[in-house]
Amino acid sequence: MSADLHPAPLTLDGSCVLHQMFRFDWPAWRALEAGDRQRMVAEAQAFLGPLEAGAAEGHPNQSAVFAQLGHKGDLLLMHLRDSMEELARLERDLAKLELSDYLEPSESYVSVVELGLYESSAKTYAQLAMEGIEPHTEVWNQRVAEVVARQAEAMGVRLFPRIPEGKYLCFYPMDRRRGEEVNWYTQSMAERQRMMHDHGMIGRRYADSVKQIISGSIGFDDWEWGVDLFADDPKVFKKLIYEMRFDEASALYAEFGPFYIAVKLPSQELGQWLSLEGGTR
Questions:
Q1: Does residue 1 register a pLDDT over 90?
Q2: What is the structure's pLDDT at 115?
Q3: Which NCBIfam families does the record match to this protein (predicted)?
């Protein structure tokens, strides 16, 4: 019996993630009285401040605001919560703010923090196959569930992370190619494990300067994964992603969506960002 009979690697799921991208209606904002603008900023700051701090107990469940660069939008909000229901409630509460009347959605992305378990999967499937245990039988499911539970307990901080402190954010969605000749999903477990190991080794060299959150979005959005990179120097995004383009997992099997680059915008600085004084914002 081959360990490759079950091709899907085990994964661990953590925080539900929502990215919201907005364009800001500057002409309508300029037409408001100064007092109205100040009131709306104060309401938004009072709403966003506690969300940035996150929960005092349990999972962090934070939100963060970023000022986008380029034409794709003006603001990017990132939210991590324990459930999709909580994200839906947060999205609704945000829409109730007066300031939301001046936010035009330009894009969004829904996903779940995901950790792949290629190495554990290969070992587990091989052991079960050696014991003659057929995939998806009661015993097989129980043994797999035990592995997932142990790994989830050990990786709790990574599954339910705080939003890293980096000043800059680079977010992009991606797929694995499923073409007629080049198809990630037809490669053996061993081959995919090898390529992901090599891919991960590149990322580890940048661990001191770049923090990442990888989320899975199959069945949730138009791409298969979302990648969030955080750093204090945005140029490191270019170096890291460029170097990764040369590894086999990216060069042959990766398709990339649009890239979003943004600067962290703490809620206490929102008033300055929205200020019309001095002709800048």
A1: no
A2: 97
A3: PRK12276.1 (NF008913)
Token pair 């790994």: residue: 151
φ, ψ of residue 227 to 5 degrees: the values are -125, 125
Given the residues 102, 172, 206, 253, the one annotated as active site: 172
As a whole number of Å, the CA-based R_g of the chain is 21
Phi, psi of 178 (to 5 degrees): -130, 50
Task: Return the structure tokens found at 6.
Answer: 């079950």
pLDDT tens-digit series, residues 121-132 = 999 999 999 999
Report the distance separating Cα 244 and Cα 246, nearest Å.
Answer: 5
* Interatomic CA distance for residues 213 and 216, integer angstroms: 10
Fold of 15-113+265-274: Alpha-Beta Plaits (3.30.70)
H helices of the chain, in order, are 26-30, 34-53, 84-95, 118-130, 138-154, 156-159, 189-205, 235-244, 248-251, 270-274
| 168 in catalytic set | no
Give the right CATH number for 158-264 from 3.30.70.1030, 3.40.50.300, 3.50.50.60, 3.40.50.720: 3.30.70.1030
- pLDDT for the residue numbered 106: 98
User: pTM to 2 decimals?
Assistant: 0.94
- For residue 6, the model assigns a pLDDT of 82
